[in-house]
TrEMBL record:
Taxon lineage: Bacteria, Candidatus Roizmaniibacteriota
Record note on cofactor: Binds 1 Fe(2+) ion.
Similarity annotation: Belongs to the polypeptide deformylase family.
Keywords from the named record: Hydrolase, Iron, Metal-binding, Protein biosynthesis
The protein's Enzyme Commission number: 3.5.1.88
Biological process terms in GO annotation: translation
Full protein name: Peptide deformylase
Source organism per UniProt: Candidatus Roizmanbacteria bacterium RIFCSPLOWO2_01_FULL_40_42
Length: 180
């Protein structure tokens, strides 16, 4: 099974190369990535980008919950975003609101309430090579933006530093604020 790489690893901070031809190798990669994603536990992953398995190609998959089909994004670009990032409440600052926490399989046990636009329009190709333009909202909007960042070599922890959003580390069943 494909191994999910963790930071720091140079492939995670390298922009991915566009895919020119969706051939058998790409289809195989998608199958293998899906296997790695659905078999990941604690936490259950909701998305995985090719660089996270050491392949620097512009491809990611999402699976917002275990009962929906995996969706494949090839050469994706965020065309448009809308909706103010959710404002942080005071409550969020003191005690982390776990519902709004974003994490990454490549940055284990680290969580943060990163502010992201609520809707994102993404242009991409599906596995059949068909060009799509689609709006995403809610959890899907967060996931697609997170995964597009991966393809640009950007980890969510870097964005947290830029936005001065505190990071939390899992200690058993508690989240503790990471001291800067
Ligand atoms: Zn990630």
């Amino acid at each position: 099974m494909l191994k999910i790489l963790t930071a720091p690893h140079p492939v995670l901070t390298t922009p991915a190369t566009p895919i020119e031809k969706i051939d058998r190798k790409i289809k195989r990669l998608v199958v293998d990535m899906e296997e790695a994603l659905v078999n990941h536990r604690d936490p259950q992953g909701v998305g995985l980008a090719a660089p996270q398995v050491g392949v620097s190609l512009a491809l990611f998959i999402i699976k917002p919950n275990p009962s929906v089909e995996t969706k494949v994004f090839i050469n994706p670009k965020v065309r448009s975003i809308t909706g103010d990032p959710q404002k942080k409440t005071k409550k969020n600052v003191k005690a982390p609101d776990e519902e709004k926490m974003e994490g990454c399989l490549s940055v284990p046990r680290i969580w943060a309430a990163l502010k992201r636009p609520r809707k994102a329009q993404v242009e991409y190709q599906d596995l059949a090579g068909e060009k799509k333009i689609e709006w995403f909202s809610g959890l899907e909007a967060v996931i697609v933006q997170h995964e597009v960042d991966h393809l640009q070599g950007i980890l969510f922890t870097q964005k947290c530093l830029e936005q001065k959003v505190p990071l939390y580390e899992e200690h058993g069943d508690k989240l503790e604020r990471v001291k800067a």
